[in-house]
Amino acid sequence: MPKVDKKAEEEEEAEKKRKAKRAKTFQTVRGMRDILPKDQPYWQRLRKVVEKIALDYNYERIDMPVLESREMFERGTGKTTDIVEKEMFKFKTKGGDDVCLRPEGTPSVMRAYLQHGMQSKQKPVKLFYSGPMYRYDRPQEGRYREFFQFGFEAIGEQEAILDAQLIQLAYRVFQTVGLKNIALQLNSIGCKECRLKYNKLLVSYLNNRKAALCMDCKKRLKKNPLRILDCKEEKCAQVVFQAPQTVDQLCDDCKNHFTMLLESLDEIDIPYTINPRLVRGLDYYSKTVFEFFPESSEEETQGALGGGGRYDYLAESLGGPETPGVGFACGMDRVVLEMARQNTKSYVIPVAKVYLVQLGDLAKKKSLKIFDELERAGIMVAESFGKKNLKSQLRLANQKGVSIVLILGQREALDETIILKDMESGSQEVVTFQKVVDDVKKRLKKSADIAANKAKKEKDAQKKLKALNK
Ligand code: AMP
């Protein structure tokens, strides 16, 4: 019987391979990628940490659609920004609506805030999200066309303490996932008035040096001069080096706001560098702007793990009332890359300690029920319902290193009993269906207690050894 099964299995495998060869296979679209199970432990750890810290800091989760109105990003993020002008995936629906795949989350959160009348809630309204974003950029490591961000937004208040608290929160996320040496850069670009004054000064400075700018920056000079400050071209960086600085043009209110932020960061021992060329490139920013870098790549914007700032005019540009806000977003793909680079602890995916083996059609059917009962009782069970042969199932159980194997053969299925094999002691007994959940539970508890005891003894022994060596 096992011999026939093996032959049938081999034949099945060979046929599968022949079929795959005949079929045309597909690949992911450029710039998109699968995040495979083997990569999930870091992702899972990051997701869990973000959720835990959101809870600790009183942020509520919000999920926005991936498809949004194109005009919303043109008005919110800004028509002349790279994200909107060059990188947006935009199209018309069959019904003629102009839509796009969201390139970032902040305008969507503000839209949701206005659309659902969250102004009436107690302020600040604290929201967080995570999900995919889309930008049509040149793909490379750490830069994809579909990437994932988590973001936090505190809407409704303008106190600088909120900016400081958001930075503290971001730091907590980095710290909790195990990242070290994260550098914070910040700047203040002031309010509307400061920006107007500063823009004039900057344009007059740059007009005199126009010839030395790259083609893009020559265009930016008319459309969005602030963007020239963070251009990555070497020749522009040289021109910008001596340019007037935003912090020198702040009005009293903006100056106080920035000072309060810096003093608050000092209070919580978060180190920072003021970068006068940091402007963050999007239209909606005002006052505070900041970015986080892993220390190894501080120089490249491409290496930024995340960034954010204040957006006190965003609500108005989306047609809402004056509403201050502050937030940040982090690239999850980049945080995960950095976690791998720094070899941080990843999430330990729980594994089953019980394996369910079945033999014959009736046992197969009954196994589903046993599996369901164990799962409902909170017991993880591994199985291979697609297999027929006892040997191959036991081999798999062994590979998984389970402590209990449950064997349901044809006879047991008729008697409504099951063979319980304790892999640690090697003992075996027959238990009834009614008793199996309780029995497994007790045995798992016992073996967990033994393991905990053993671990404690080892730890104590190590402590003693250390004390003796001192
Ligand atoms: P931004 O608001 O554009 O500064 O984006 C915030 C963060 O999202 C960045 O610091 C990156 O970590 C991440 N990010 C932005 N664009 C991409 C991309 N194309 N691929 C991967 N991550 C990205």
Distance between the termini: 64 Å
Strand content: 15-25%
Which structural class is indicated by helix and strand composition?
alpha+beta
* Mean pLDDT rating: 93
**In what order do the strands lie side by side in the largest sheet?**
1-5-6-11-10-9-7-8
Query: Helicity level, as a percent range?
Result: 40-55%
Number of domains: 3
> So, the CATH homologous superfamily of the largest domain?
Bira Bifunctional Protein, Domain 2
Q: How many separate helices?
A: 16
Gross CATH architecture of the largest domain? 2-Layer Sandwich
**Low confidence ranges:** none
**Shape field:** elongated
Find the CATH topology of the largest domain: BirA Bifunctional Protein, domain 2
Ligand set = adenosine monophosphate
Radius of gyration, Cα only, in angstroms? 30 Å
Number of strands: 16
- At the first level of CATH, what is the class of the largest domain? Alpha Beta
Condensed summary:
The chain has 16 helices and 16 strands. The radius of gyration is 30 Å and the shape is elongated. Helices cover 45% and strands 18% of the residues.
Describe this structure in words.
This protein has 470 residues and is of the alpha+beta class. The chain folds into three domains: 246 residues, Bira Bifunctional Protein, Domain 2 (BirA Bifunctional Protein, domain 2); 54 residues, no CATH class; 105 residues, Anticodon-binding domain (Rossmann fold, 3-Layer(aba) Sandwich). 45% of the residues lie in helices and 18% in strands. The chain has 16 helices and 16 strands. The chain has an eight-stranded mixed sheet, with helices on both faces. A five-stranded mixed sheet has the order 13-12-14-15-16, sandwiched between helices. Strands 2-4-3 form a three-stranded antiparallel sheet. Helix 2 packs antiparallel against helix 6 and helix 6 runs parallel beside helix 10. The chain is elongated, with a radius of gyration of 30 Å. The mean pLDDT is 93. Adenosine monophosphate binds next to strand 6, strand 10, strand 11 and helix 12.
